[in-house]
Structures are given as structure tokens and as C-alpha cells.
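Milestone M4 deliverable, item 7.
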Amino acid sequence: MTAPLLLALAGVLAGRHLAPASPPPRALTGTPPAPGRERDALQRVGRVVRRLANRAPDPAAERRVGGAVLVGVGLGALATPLAVVPLGWCLVSPVLRRRRERMQRARRIVVDLPDLVDLLALSAGAGLTIRLALEAVAPRLTGPLGSALADVVARLRAGQGVAESLDALGDRLGEPALPLVSALRASERYGVPLGPALERVSVDARFERRRAADELARRVPVKLLFPLVLCTLPAFALLTVVPLLAGSLHALRAS
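Output delivered:
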């Protein structure tokens, strides 16, 4: 609404310059227009602007000012959505970007988690403790899991306990890594055998990765719908429907 108001204000200021300061000869002759009769919409708008500008009556100037005001309001009404759309996109774009980054991070954790579980199972089978296993596996992973394990290793080397470091790992990786963190914590605190627990976690992690891949594959037709409609369908219509219509019109003209 700001642009139309500014343009209307510009029309008011224009009215101060377009309308003459002294009354025109017709006004001096005492032949005003009949009361209650309105020439047109432009003159009515210009009359309002003229009264606001405190100028003498002049039908020609009123009509010019009314046209300028109406054109300004129309242009402002057209320009307002063009200004609102970029502003709205600037406000929504950071939110969408952060949401997309969170989704990509969660998907990367789900994809890499079975590999982490397998590496920890191999390390435990080789006789390493949980702390040594984490230190051996951390340099071999990248992405969110690699950075989280590097943080855990830094905590362990700084003197923090294994159980507290595993709690920090669960808080950082979120729900997908909770079964793994629970298995490691139970083995560290209560001496639960780590091999069978990691095997169960590996099976569940692979099933979750397969489910995420299936869900991502089911989204592909929906994402291809808009390119298909906007690109392929017009070309199909031009190659098939338009020649048929042209042939039909030619046959009708010939008959």
C-alpha cells in the first residue's frame, strides 16, 4: 500500500503546479457548471486533489491531475506485488535453506550409520575397547558422523569419561544414532557384550537406510511432474495436436 499512497501524494503535489493560482476567466464570468453534474471520473478525482491543494477551479487542470492520480495508483497497485514477492522470498529463503540443510544432514547420518556400526564391530572383534575403537574409526569417516566422532575423541583425550562422551555423541547425532549410543553405553557401564548388540544395531540401521532410499525414490515422480508438464507437454501438443488441428481446418476450408 506504500507505493500507491506515494504516487497519490505525487498527484497532489502535481495538482499544486497544474492548477492555476488565479481563477480562470470562466469562473470570473459567473457561469459555474450546474450543481450535481459530474463531468467524468478524472475530473472528480482532480477536484478532490484541487480542494486539498486549495486551488481555484479549473476543469482542464482537474482532469489532468485526476488522470495522473489514477495512473499513479494503478501503477502502484501493479508494482506492489512485484516488490512484495522478492521481499517475501528474502524472508522465507533462509528458513528453507536451514530446513534443507537439516534434512540433508539427517539423511547423511542415516546413510553412513551402518558403515560406522560395521567398523565398530570389527574394532570390538579385534579386542579394542570402546575408547580405542572410537579413536581408530573417527579418522576414517567424513560428514556429520566424522565430525561428531572427532568431537568425542577430543573429549576423551581431554579427560572426559567414555559414558559422558557417548551422551554428547547422542545429543549431537540425534535420533538415528540413539540405538548405537545405547549399545555402547550399556557395554561401557554394565559390561554387556558389544558384538551381538552391534549386530542388531547394524541390521536396524541397514533397514532404516533402505527405507530412506525407498522414500527418496518415491519422491522422484513428484519432482519430475513440473518439468514434464512445463517442457514435455507443450512440445507434445505442438508435434501432435497442432498438426491435427491444422489438417482439420484445411479440410474444412476445402470442403
